[in-house]
From TrEMBL:
Full protein name: Esterase
Molecular function GO labels: acyltransferase activity, transferring groups other than amino-acyl groups
InterPro entries, per database record: AB_hydrolase_fold (IPR029058), Esterase-like (IPR000801), Ig-like_fold (IPR013783), Ig_E-set (IPR014756), Mycobacterial_A85_antigen (IPR050583)
UniProt key word Signal: yes
Keywords: Signal
Annotated signal peptide: 1-21
UniProt cross-references to Pfam families, sorted A to Z: Esterase (PF00756)
PANTHER family the UniProt entry points to: DIACYLGLYCEROL ACYLTRANSFERASE_MYCOLYLTRANSFERASE AG85A (PTHR48098:SF1), ENTEROCHELIN ESTERASE-RELATED (PTHR48098)
Highest taxon of source: Bacteria
């Protein structure tokens, strides 16, 4: 089962990429505005109300520039055309999926980031990023509500003989309510990303702030740490062994968090979730250590089967999600099979998205109200 899951997720990672939202495209509306992921004061890249993206790069000596979008620059990219002033410009062939996308520039065969865009760690390197405004972006918008805090911690790891980093989200009011203890969600990033992904690309803290302010969830802590324990190169995910990370998470990070934060240090108040590779880690660790977590969530990270979970009392919730352009039928069927076997299983499909952050932002929004009931 583990090998089949590894192959399935690896296939997603190596084939997913930038997606156009439709095929028969209307005329482009010239209402382009700078992307919210731009460097301060930079006009390009721009996006319009239809979801098209337009890029401009000044490179007088270049012979060719292509914008490569999506995981690993899949789908061929968008070629730019050189103008007399030495600048290069081009617009995507169609509207992009809503939400966040990684991209980079290929200039005369070399890979570079766009000087107009902010950088985000993804695809095992720092990539440029662009945000296509989503019709439902309000749930992860920065609003005038009480905000929690995302802080860096460094925790000792004897198993890796180093100090490791994690980021901890504590909800608004944590510092004032000195006697209140909180449940904890351990939330993992995907392949090629790191422990910054969920709070930067994913806006997990803003999603939590908004849900808490709306009274849709009770406050809880989120812990996000680096999910790799060895230098696995691109294409090497098949050989990645989760046992070492399991030790880091369960035997080192969780005790440290319980000792240094006001947590409810009990299985029934602890959840694990992850996107893509982080879902694979969640799948393996929750099955191997059922005494640690009561809530399991795979976000574009495969599925569970009834046969894998030996004791029905171990899991209070099994949540599985994906984009509608991934494996929606498989995720839905897995939930149906688990429910038929007596498990509390929930499936969620993000409409018109693929293996990308809007899928996972929406998934977190749906998951959070189901936790710690």
């Amino acid at each position: 089962m583990k090998n089949k899951l590894l192959v399935a997720i690896f296939a997603i990672l190596t084939t997913s990429g930038f997606c156009f939202a439709q095929t028969n495209q209307p005329a482009i509306i010239e209402d382009f505005k700078p992307s919210t992921c731009n460097q301060p004061g930079q006009e390009y890249p721009k996006v319009n109300s239809q979801g098209y993206a337009r890029f401009r790069v000044v490179a007088p000596q270049a012979q060719s520039i292509v914008v490569s979008l999506g995981l690993g620059g899949a789908k061929g990219g968008t070629p730019l055309t050189k103008a007399d002033d030495g600048s290069w410009m081009g617009t995507t062939a169609g509207p992009m999926d809503e939400g966040f996308h990684y991209y980079h520039l290929t200039i005369d065969g070399g890979v570079f980031n766009d000087p107009g865009a902010l950088n985000f760690y993804g695809s095992t390197r720092w990539e440029s990023g662009i945000e296509i405004p989503a019709h439902d972006k309000d749930f992860y918008a920065l609003k005038d509500v009480p905000h929690g805090n995302v802080q860096q911690i460094l925790f000792p790891s004897k198993s890796t003989n180093t100090s490791r980093r994690a980021f901890v989200y504590t909800p608004a009011g944590y510092d004032k309510n000195a006697k209140t203890k909180y449940p904890v969600l351990y939330l993992q990033h995907g392949w090629g990303e790191d422990e910054t992904a969920w709070s930067v690309q994913g806006h997990a803290n803003l999603i939590m702030d908004n849900l808490i302010a709306e009274g849709k969830i009770k406050p809880f802590i989120i812990v996000m740490t680096y999910g790799m324990t060895n230098d696995t190169k691109p294409g090497g995910i098949r050989s990645f062994n989760y046992n070492a990370f399991q030790t880091v998470l369960v035997d080192e990070l969780i005790p440290y968090v319980d000792a240094n934060f006001r947590t409810i240090a009990a299985k029934d108040s602890r959840a694990m979730a992850g996107l893509s590779m982080g879902g694979m880690e969640t799948h393996s660790i929750t099955l191997a250590r059922p005494e640690v977590f009561s809530y399991y969530a795979l976000l574009s990270g495969g599925t569970y089967t009834p046969a894998e979970i030996k004791d029905k009392s171990q899991a209070k919730l099994i949540f599985m999600s994906c984009g509608s352009r991934e494996n929606p039928d498989g995720v839905k069927k897995a939930a149906v099979d688990l429910k038929a076997a007596g498990y509390n299983a929930v499936s969620f499909v993000s409409e018109n998205t693929a293996h990308e952050f809007l899928t996972w932002r929406r998934s977190l929004k749906e998951l959070a109200p189901l936790l710690f009931k």
